[in-house]
Design brief:
The complex is a heterodimer of chains A (about 260) and B (about 625). By secondary structure, chain A is α/β, with parallel strands linked by helices. Chain A contains 8 helices and 10 strands. Chain A has a single domain, classed as Rossmann fold, CATH 3.40.50.300. Chain A is about 35% helix and about 25% strand. In chain A, strand 9 (about 215-220) and strand 10 (about 225-230) form a beta hairpin. In chain A, helix 3 runs parallel beside helix 5 (about 150-160). Chain B has 3 domains: about 1-190, no CATH class; about 195-315 and about 495-613, no CATH class; about 320-480, no CATH class. The chains are: A alpha/beta (about 260), B alpha+beta (about 625). Chain A: Keywords: ATP-binding, Nucleotide-binding, Transport.
């Protein structure tokens, strides 16, 4: 603990060309994530959550400011380097799973390792280890089309974890899941965080999912609006989050 | 109202439809082109060396028809995938099911009819263009060939209207059977990969048996004749399709089963793509393989016939020309040739006969060819070694080899000297004959076909000479050149047909595969963008695309090539050496195919690769 994994400094993101209708999605956002931290990012629709995730995940470039991940400045890297950086340092979990449906679950999880040139004999134990952590050992040989949403998301989480990235970026991972699957997925993530010191950045608008985090960043209109820390039980934290949400100036946008 | 909606959305999706229209149009154009030959019985009968040519074309029509049915059914089902989501949308907005079904029927039919009209126009144009190009190249008048041939037009129209009608019903039926939700979410549905071991095994065995029987029939075409052709057609076509349907998916699965290969870099993705594709592609790949086989086969046969002309011409002659009493013009012609052997034989001609000097003949014995009627092989030229001990021979008393040399190689026969007798005499007797001495030149050149114009001059002069002796209009002077001209006249029709059809089939092949690959490309886009997200370098994605498409191109090419290599046996009873110049059509094919692979990769890349900032 103590090392900074993600360091976001005064990040700006403006869409649209100059002299045209410009839209300021991020307006000077700064925050840190320490190693082994489980941080949630919340905010109403259109607040800039996804944009923030995209720039942190190197999929998009900020128009201003600096981002460091695991000590590397990613704002000035080339496309090819960024791709390598993503495959080595980042793990992704998306709302719509983004598993490759033409590969088995096993192959999906193994893909990041294959991409890094890990020899085949070392891949198998790693995949099985991570699958065991997420409780999906029995579906490894199945295709994504034949398993449930919850299982898919666990498979996606396994793929995000298998190459031991510096941080896992999760974009509404429970968005497409029923409440039971959502709960078990969040519990699995807490388990990873607690027992394996995995750093996680979770973007969500679901207060229940957010209540599993250590700390929540609230974003509104492209700016950091509030930051709350978890003290006490998860239920209490859930209530704190709900209270924080109700403070937003445009409550009709909050579900 | 619905009709208006569907028309406007068709206009919106014009780009997608363009690919479809292009595919259909080419298919129709090629079918029509084939029929302009197949149905023009008078033309093919008078221009072919194969007596059963009409029958060959019937079989060809059958094969092409079968392939076309496969292709059209596939291509029109593409309309369904394009449109089903929107059809589902209409239904959620309250359109009645039978309305939507009707709409689907009319749309499919409408596109069919439009492409039929364009296809026929293109077909006429292509038939005319290609015909003129090759007729000019081959120096072939092609009398009786008509690019705009009404009977073929009618056949094509009937065939395709029926086909489109059927496919429209099928499309409408598919829409009718699906629920609204299925239609709306059709795009998210995935095909399930199921390769059942036992079924695959039976399929592979059956495919091998069918193709084996077909190959047997082709190799023994000489004995089996018509039945052989029918047998080959009805076994190889389904055999090829079965091969692709059963063997290939199994093969890719086996490849994937190899862990260390599968888990290297992007291989698992490439193979996974390939495996999923294979299921949709089996029929298309089968079609492509058949088209390659037919196109390449027709072209190879055409070129072999072309090559065969010279071989046949030289079957009876060891020397390339015999020049009696060379004129100045002949000498100039000789000076322009690369002569490898030239011998002069003196003789005297008087009213009774023609007297060859024996010593000349023995000093430089000429080469001859002795044809063995039981063998298909071209005899090798041999030099006469027999001696001539007597002082004087009448032509009939000469040993066989020498009479062949005189009558064939030197053309010392009635076609040159009319009714005069031919003698071979020794020096003493030769001196006593009171007549002017003259001579005949026997020559061999390094490359016969390179000197055709000189041989033509020589042949014309010889003909004048022959007319002097015979006092009448003589027919063509026998000899290698005469034979060459004769064989060329009868085979150029066959050559023309071969090349014409070869080009047509290869064009259709190109459109089929390209259409298929590009029409499914959009659904692959999200896979590539996903890979980019998890950090795959663009160069790696490009490599994966090259590999995947390369394999897809490779399989049908291999099968098609094997078909052609074995299929050329079919012609072994009519073409002397069917394999001698086979590298030529094969390299033409490889160049076209390679070029076409490259274009497909370029276009595919443009569709699927994520745009990076």
């Amino acid at each position: 603990m103590g090392t900074t994994v993600v360091n976001v400094k005064d990040v700006q993101k403006v869409f649209g060309k100059r002299n045209e209708n410009q839209y300021r999605a991020l307006n000077g956002v700064s925050f840190n994530i320490q190693e082994g931290e489980f941080v949630g990012v919340m905010g109403p629709s259109g607040a800039g959550k996804t944009t923030l995730l995209n720039v942190v995940s190197t999929l998009d470039k900020p128009t201003g400011g600096a981002i460091q991940i695991a000590g590397t400045d990613i704002t000035h890297m080339k496309q090819g380097q960024l791709a390598d950086f993503r495959s080595e340092q980042l793990g992704f979990i998306f709302q719509d799973f983004n598993l490759l449906e033409n590969l088995t679950v096993y192959e999906n999880i193994a893909l990041p390792l294959s991409l890094q040139g890990v020899p085949s004999r070392k891949i198998k134990p790693s995949v099985q280890e991570v699958a065991a952590k997420l409780g999906i050992t029995n579906i490894l040989e199945k295709y994504p089309a034949t398993i449930s949403g919850g299982q898919k998301q666990r498979a996606a989480a396994a793929r995000a974890l298998v190459h031991e990235p510096a941080i896992i970026l999760a974009d509404e991972p429970t968005g497409a899941l029923d409440s039971k699957s959502a709960k078990s997925l969040m519990e699995a993530m807490v388990h990873l965080h607690k027992n394996h010191h995995v750093s996680i950045m979770l973007v969500t608008h679901d207060p229940l999912s957010a209540s599993y985090c250590d700390r929540i960043l609230f974003i509104q209109d492209g700016e950091l609006y509030k930051e709350i820390f978890r003290k006490g039980s998860r239920n209490e934290f859930h209530q704190t989050i709900l209270d924080a949400l109700s403070e937003f100036t445009s409550p009709d946008e909050v579900e | 109202m619905l009709l208006k909606l569907s028309l406007s959305s068709m206009r919106k999706m014009f780009k997608d439809y363009l690919v479809l229209l292009f595919g259909l149009t080419i298919s129709i154009a090629i079918f029509y082109m084939f029929e302009t030959l197949a149905q023009n019985q008078a033309f093919i009968e008078s221009n072919s060396m194969i007596s059963a040519i009409v029958f060959v074309f019937h079989v060809g029509t059958f094969i092409l028809g079968a392939i076309t049915v496969f292709y059209i059914f596939y291509a029109t089902s593409f309309i369904l995938t394009l449109r089903q989501k929107e059809m589902g949308m209409y239904m959620t907005l309250g359109a009645k099911k039978h309305k939507v079904t009707q709409l689907m029927f009319f749309e499919t039919f409408f596109i069919g009819i439009v492409s039929l009209m364009i296809g026929l126009t293109v077909g006429v144009g292509l038939a005319k263009g290609i015909a003129e190009l090759f007729m000019w190249q081959l120096d072939f008048s092609g009398e009786g060939f008509e690019a705009l041939y009404p009977p073929s037009m009618i056949t094509t129209i009937i065939f395709y209207v029926v086909l489109f009608f059927l496919t429209s019903i099928v499309n409408a039926g598919k829409i009718a059977r699906k629920s609204v939700l299925n239609l709306l979410h059709a795009e998210q549905k995935q095909d399930h990969v199921k390769v059942k071991g036992k079924k695959t095994f039976i399929g592979v065995v059956l495919a091998v048996i069918l193709i084996g029987v077909g190959y047997y029939a082709m190799i023994n075409m000489g004995q089996l004749e018509h039945y052989g052709l029918i047998l080959a057609a009805i076994t190889i076509v389904p055999g090829t399709y079965l091969m692709f349907i059963s063997f290939l998916p199994w093969f890719v699965k086996k490849l994937k089963g190899n862990r260390s290969l599968n888990e290297k870099g992007l291989n698992s993705f490439t193979l996974g793509q390939l495996r999923f594709r294979m299921l949709n592609l089996t029929k298309v790949l089968g079609t492509v393989a058949m088209l390659i086989a037919m196109g390449l086969g027709a072209m190879t046969a055409g070129i072999s016939f072309y090559h065969n002309v010279e071989l046949q011409a030289s079957a009876f002659y060891a020397n390339d020309a015999a020049i009696h009493q060379p004129t100045e013009e002949d000498e100039t012609a000789l000076a322009n040739m690369n002569i490898t052997e030239q011998n002069t034989y003196h003789y005297k001609v008087n009213d009774q006969g023609v007297y060859f000097l024996k010593e000349d003949l023995l000093e430089n014995p000429p080469m001859i060819k002795q044809v063995d009627p039981t063998s298909m092989e071209i005899p090798e030229g041999t030099r006469i070694s027999e001696s001539l001990p007597e002082a004087k021979y009448k032509f009939e008393e000469l040993p066989d080899a020498w009479s062949t040399a005189l009558s064939m190689e030197m053309n010392a026969s009635s076609s040159m000297f009319g009714g005069k007798s031919i003698y071979v005499v020794d020096k003493g007797n030769y001196h006593d004959i009171s007549a002017d001495e003259t001579s005949v030149e026997l020559l061999q050149v390094d490359n016969f076909t390179a000197h055709l114009s000189q041989f033509e001059t020589i042949s014309e002069n010889q003909q004048e000479l022959a007319e002097n002796y015979r006092g009448e209009g003589a027919e063509t002077i026998p000899g290698k050149y005469g034979n060459y001209v004769g064989f060329k006249a009868i085979s150029s029709g066959t050559i023309f047909m071969g090349i014409f059809l070869g080009v047509a089939f290869l064009m259709m092949m190109a459109s089929v595969l390209m259409f298929k690959l590009l029409s499914t490309a959009t659904t692959d886009t999200h896979r590539y963008s996903m890979l980019r997200k998890i950090g795959v370098r663009k160069s790696l994605l490009v490599k994966s695309i090259y590999r995947e498409l390369f394999l897809l191109f490779l399989f049908p090419a291999l099968v098609g090539l094997v078909h052609v290599l074995i299929g050329m046996q079919m012609f072994s009873f009519i073409i002397i050496e069917p394999y001698t110049k086979i590298w030529m059509p094969i390299s033409i094919f490889l160049v076209i195919y390679g070029l076409y692979f490259w274009i497909t990769v370029k276009m595919y890349k443009r569709i699927v690769l994520p745009k990076e900032a």
